């Protein structure tokens, strides 16, 4: 495997077997020719970049029937309102003495940009999945329905001018050509402009053994050290970071084009933590691999033993992450009766690979004996909603079994 950033030969650290398109919910329980790819992960010990060996063509994942809508979570809607406030206060600060222009990459259904539109801040979304892009337009968000990359960035620069802020959430980890992506951001930003992006954080995945963050769309898991090393080659200088509770543990990175600010104490502390966790040491990933295998066996045994007593098991949240779990652990309809989910485009479909039915949320009653919280990253919101549920909860996470 060659590193997607520097082309060096790098080792494979774990194999999750054959996996389908994680958000590819199916109309039939027995589809012909479902697509599968071999999901292995590798790490570059020189720059710490954790990456998929093979990734399906982005057009197979991001299209007019993309299943993920940001607005399905109230917590995420609030999160993006907070992001818009942070962006607006930055633009009103003395540092931003420009005419304002904000671009969001992977703007999905417009849950963040709608607030900038309301406030009159010139902004633009870039979103290749047509159905979610159309949804964002209902909120007045102007959206370019294309994949972001350096070609589009040059076009946007000439049609719209340079941006003060380029913002992206849960999408940079999806874009396979990381060098072209960093170049594209550098082209689009003004000198002194800020690139803010956030993604699931490698250290959280390693600490929690939340291997379900790894699926076709997530070609990378970043850390402060890998972002710092890679983006500076494109004149984008990491100066701050912020840990976030979203998606089970994320990191927001703040990079400045051209200007080199001193690193904040947050960033210095976080890089210290990363150094202590030995992110460049392959032994770290060997441990992770062993924990994944342990978690897989323990989770499947737990469900099998429960099912032997003829009890009802329901999956809560047909998340893209659950696709990795079910296919890696070889768990199907024999163990999980069905998923419940609130996303209209997933309801009455079948889960990718294992074909477990997805039913609407009202099927959560009558309550099952065991609910598997596949949407564990929304635990707080869901526990609040399910105060009357008296059955058991479980997740696949390693800590639940030790
Ligand atoms: N930002 C939203 C959506 C994340 S899902 C949130 O955090 O909730 C990832 C989104 O990125 C999808 O809507 C997908 O269509 C989009 N995407 C994937 N590849 C992209 C690319 N190259 N350029 C821009 N958007 C992309
Ligand atoms: P995510 O983990 O990728 O954000 O996906 C969350 C999934 O869980 C999405 O399909 C919607 C679903 N969900 C519910 O069914 N009920 C809920 O209360 C929440 C918050 C999410």
Describe the fold and architecture.
This protein has helices spanning 58-61, 74-92, 113-119, 130-137, 150-160, 178-188, 202-208, 224-231, 265-276, 282-308, 320-329, 379-385; strands at residues 12-19, 37-43, 50-52, 102-105, 123-126, 143-144, 163-169, 189-200, 220-221, 236-244, 250-257, 313-316, 338-341, 349-350, 357-360, 370-373, 392-394. It starts with 11 loop residues before the first strand and ends in an 8-residue tail after the last strand. The protein is of the alpha/beta class and 402 residues long. The longest helix is centred in the last third of the chain and has 27 residues, at 282-308. Helix content is 33%, strand content 22%. Helix 5 (150-160) runs parallel beside helix 6. S-adenosyl-L-homocysteine binds at residues 58, 62, 66, 68, 70, 76, 105-106, 108, 126-129, 132, 147-148, 169-171, 174-175.
Derived structural class = alpha/beta
Q: What small molecules does the structure contain?
A: S-adenosyl-L-homocysteine, thymidine-5'-phosphate
Unreliable spans are none
Q: What form results from the Cα inertia axes?
A: globular
Strand content: 15-25%
Number of strands: 17
- Could you tell me the mean pLDDT? 95
Q: Distance between termini?
A: 33 Å
Strand order of the largest sheet: 6-5-4-7-8-11-10
């Amino acid at each position: 495997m060659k590193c997607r950033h520097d082309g060096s030969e790098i080792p494979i650290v774990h194999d999750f077997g054959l996996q389908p398109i994680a958000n590819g919910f199916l109309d039939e329980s027995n589809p012909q020719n479902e697509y599968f790819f071999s999901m292995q992960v590798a790490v570059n010990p020189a720059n710490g970049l954790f990456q998929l060996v093979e990734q399906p063509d982005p057009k197979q994942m991001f299209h007019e029937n993309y299943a993920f809508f940001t607005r399905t979570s109230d917590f995420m809607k609030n999160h993006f309102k907070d992001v818009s406030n942070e962006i607006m206060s930055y633009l009103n600060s003395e540092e931003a003495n420009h005419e304002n222009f904000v671009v969001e990459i992977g703007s999905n259904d417009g849950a963040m940009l709608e607030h900038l539109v309301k406030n009159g801040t010139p902004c633009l979304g870039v979103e290749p999945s047509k159905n979610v892009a159309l949804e964002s337009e209902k909120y007045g968000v102007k959206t370019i329905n294309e994949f972001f990359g350096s070609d589009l960035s040059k076009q946007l620069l000439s049609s719209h001018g340079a941006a003060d802020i380029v913002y992206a959430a849960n999408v940079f980890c999806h874009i396979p050509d990381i060098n072209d992506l960093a170049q594209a951001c550098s082209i689009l930003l003004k000198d002194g402009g800020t690139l803010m992006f956030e993604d699931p954080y490698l250290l959280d995945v390693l600490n929690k053994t939340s291997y379900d963050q790894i699926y076709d769309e997530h070609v990378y898991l970043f850390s402060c050290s890998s972002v710092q090393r890679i983006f500076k080659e494109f004149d984008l200088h990491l100066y701050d970071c912020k840990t976030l509770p979203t998606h089970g543990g994320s990191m927001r990175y703040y990079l400045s084009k051209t200007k080199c600010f001193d690193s904040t104490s947050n960033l210095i502390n976080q890089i210290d933590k990363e150094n202590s966790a030995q992110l460049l040491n392959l032994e770290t990933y060997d441990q992770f691999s062993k924990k994944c295998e342990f978690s897989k066996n323990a989770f499947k045994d737990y469900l099998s033993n429960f099912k032997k007593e003829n009890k009802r098991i329901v999956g809560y949240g047909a998340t893209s992450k659950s696709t990795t779990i079910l296919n890696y652990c070889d768990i199907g309809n024999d163990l999980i009766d069905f998923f419940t989910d609130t996303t209209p485009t997933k309801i009455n479909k079948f889960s990718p690979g294992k074909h477990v039915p997805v039913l609407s949320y009202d099927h959560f009653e009558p309550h099952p004996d065991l609910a598997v919280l596949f949407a564990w990253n929304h635990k707080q919101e869901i526990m609040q909603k399910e105060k009357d549920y008296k059955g058991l909860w479980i997740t696949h996470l390693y800590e639940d079994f030790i």
